[in-house]
Pentapeptide repeat-containing protein (Streptomyces similanensis), 215 residues
Amino acid sequence: MKRARRPEVRLPALEPYEGAGLAPDGDYDGLEFRETDLAGQDGAGARFLDCALRGCALDDASLRHARFLDSALTGVRGVGTDLAEATLRDVELTDARLGGTQLHGAVLERVRIGGGKLDYLNLRKARLRDVVFEGCVLIEPDFAGARLERVEFVDCALTGVEFTGAALTDVDLRGAAPLEIAGGVERLAGAVISTGQLLDLAPVLAARLGIRVED
């Protein structure tokens, strides 16, 4: 089992963001967005380099194809944020409150998601490499068709997770409690689980394999 490489985000001295909103394909370098209301903003294709977003509202924000590089997002919140096909590299996402976030087709590399609650996270066909979910609550996350390599779940609640069609390599699920798999249990090859988790998943595995269990 190869461990995930965690991001090492070291932000420089940041300038406060004083703009009125985001712009498509905008270029944001060394900026701090503090308590900024970005709800409904169109930042599709934007690049955020060495930036911090702290306490920002992201409801229905369009960040499709955006790139977050060497950046920290702390206490962000929102419903319906569109990050489809975005790139997150060397990013720390801490204490987020997000619902229905679209990350399908996104690329996450050296990302730590710590604390907070993420409901209905759509990561279909995304690529995750060196990603750590730590101390967070994940409700019905969807990894269908995604590729996960060196991904760890540490002290997480993982309920209703979907792995249908996913490819897992060096994925550590032992720190997920509870671990509730809604689909794709047969795709767990390449993952490691604990003995207790195996016992909990036994009925699902038996049903998937067509095994009748009778006493």
